[in-house]
Amino acid sequence: MTREELYSGKAKTIYKTDNPEILIAEFRNSLTAFNGEKKGEMDKKGYYNAHISKKLFEMLESEGIRTHYIEMIFDIDMLIKKVEIIKIEVIVRNIAAGSITKKYPLKEGTIFKLPVIVFDFKSDEYGDPMLNDDIALALGLATREELTILRKLALRINELLLIYLDERGIILPDLKLEFGRKDGEILLADEISCDTCRFWDKKTGQSMDKDIFRFNKGDISKAYEKVARRIVPEIFE
Ligand code: 5GP
Question: Which residue from 93, 92, 130 is spatially nearest to 109, judged by alpha carbons?
């Protein structure tokens, strides 16, 4: 299969394939935080995140959630359906952590009675500012109907992930989801991994995600491996 680069983001490079409807997402080892201000590299990060995403996409598909995932074709290469990415980061919060504790009087660790959904404008240029429905509509990012669907899908995905991860000793304080349009449908896109979720160890409460890199909290390699061992034990056999 020939490979022509379509787009290179902060953690993944997207390639065209011979089929215009299908792309390859290559999960790289690069780490960035704070809108690209902090940069790093972690051996095997791409491998772990790709396989964690694969497993979570498969689980969600089996529960009726449509995703862009097709199959893994190599260690770090995921075959995906080409979608038109909706420039909204859908963040679901179950427990207060990160930016919400800086912007509002909410202590880290506060458990929300109901999941809190926030829409951010996916824009490096503007630093991903928070949206409300009127701004999203004014920017033409999505229709009102799509915003309703995004909210509904995000809540269902969160619900399924909470159960799945809890069974593997992982708490999910929050996560970021991205969606895309394809043939009149909205598909879950991007990735679900240690880079896009907060994962806390159920026993110790310790971070097992990108916060370790963001805030120099310890050995990131060990933490990502720990998550991978719980979600995709088969890659260690
Ligand atoms: P926060 O708003 O606290 O920075 O992030 C909330 C959650 O969404 C965290 O799980 C974080 O990893 C994820 N998140 C929010 N914005 C981004 C982003 O631009 N890139 C990535 N990889 N994750 C994000």
Answer: 93
Question: Cβ-count burial of 230 within 10 angstroms (0-12 exposed, 13-18 middle, 19+ buried)?
Answer: middle
Supply φ then ψ for residue 158, to 5 degrees.
-60, -45
Among 32, 91, 94, residue to substitute to test ligand 1 (most atoms within 8 Å of Cβ): 91
Query: How far is it, in rounded angstroms, from Cα 113 to Cα 152?
Result: 17
3-class secondary structure for 129-155? CECCHHHHHHCCCCCHHHHHHHHHHHH
Tokens of 182: 């394809």
Q: Which residue puts its alpha carbon closest to atom 22 of ligand 1?
A: 196
The pTM for the full model equals 0.97
List per-block mean pLDDT (blocks of 10 residues) for the chain, which spans 237 residues: 86 97 98 94 97 98 98 96 98 98 98 98 96 98 98 98 98 98 98 98 98 95 98 97
Q: How remote is the CA of residue 183 from the centroid of ligand 1, in Å?
A: 28
- The reply to whether ligand 1 has any atom less than 6 angstroms from the CB of 30 is no
Question: Of the candidates 217, 205, 221, 214, which has an alpha carbon nearest to the alpha carbon of residue 170?
Answer: 205
Ligand 1 center from residue 233 Cα (angstroms): 26
Say if ligand 1 is within 6 A of residue 175 CB: yes
Atom of ligand 1 nearest to the CA of 173: 10
Exposure letters 215-227 (e unless 16+ CB within 10 A, then b): eeeeebeebbbbb
